[in-house]
Amino acid sequence: MASADVIDMFIQLDLAHVRGDVSKAGVDGSQIDTWENNLLAGTSIRYGGYGGIAYRHISDTYIALFSHFIPCGVWEAVYLFEGLLKNESEVTVDIVHGDTQGQSLPVFGLAHMLGIQLGPNGALPAGGAPFCFLRPPIPAAITVPTTADPRAAAAPV
Q1: Contact criterion met (CB below 8 Å) for 64 and 74
Q2: For strand 64-71 and strand 49-59, is the pairing parallel, antiparallel, or unpaired?
Q3: What whole-number distance in Å separates Cα of residue 106 and Cα of residue 26?
Q4: How far is CA 42 from CA 32, 55, 108, 140, in A?
Q5: Phi/psi-derived region of residue 12, left when phi > 0, alpha when psi is between -120 and 50, beta in every other case
Q6: Residues whose CB is less than 8 angstroms from the CB of residue 90 and which lie 6 or more positions away in sequence, other chains included
Q7: What whole-number distance in Å separates Cα of residue 67 and Cα of residue 129?
Q8: Given this model, what pLDDT does residue 24 score?
């Protein structure tokens, strides 16, 4: 599969391992508007719209491992495992962070049998949040050159 080849090439880059070690993934769905005459489309009370759900598995290295378009109203936890089982890349995920749609007793039981640790979205381990989709901080090992003199910006006009 072409996406598996892209993922495998990406994780070979040094830059891919600055934010993670590809052992964790975050899963979540987001409502996408679609046409009404669509087999997957429906009204979503949870998202407050009409359409379907784009359910994604994102690695801690910020690459999409798997995505699936699912109908509104289904329990997203079913697709949590489907994405992990259908992933054809060399990446093996051990820890999955999901929201309340991915957390229930049957889901925790199946995850335990598959050797996957489930954690809540937004969990705060000792090193900070596992995912930061806004703007990740620049690690100390990377220096960003600046061309402007910071004193010039502070000088009165």
Answers
A1: no
A2: antiparallel
A3: 19
A4: 11, 15, 28, 47
A5: alpha
A6: 4, 7, 8, 11
A7: 22
A8: 85
Token digits of residue 11 = 């994780």
pLDDT of residue 120: 76
Task: For the chain, state the CA radius of gyration.
Answer: 19
Check whether 137 has a pLDDT greater than 80.
Answer: no
Task: Give yes or no for a contact between 68 and 38, defined as CB atoms under 8 angstroms apart.
Answer: no
Query: Is the model's pTM score more than 0.90?
Result: no
- Is residue 150 very low, low, confident or very high in pLDDT (cuts 50, 70, 90)? low
Chain length of the chain: 157
Residue type (1 letter), 137:
P
Residue 125: which pLDDT band, with cuts at 50, 70 and 90?
very low
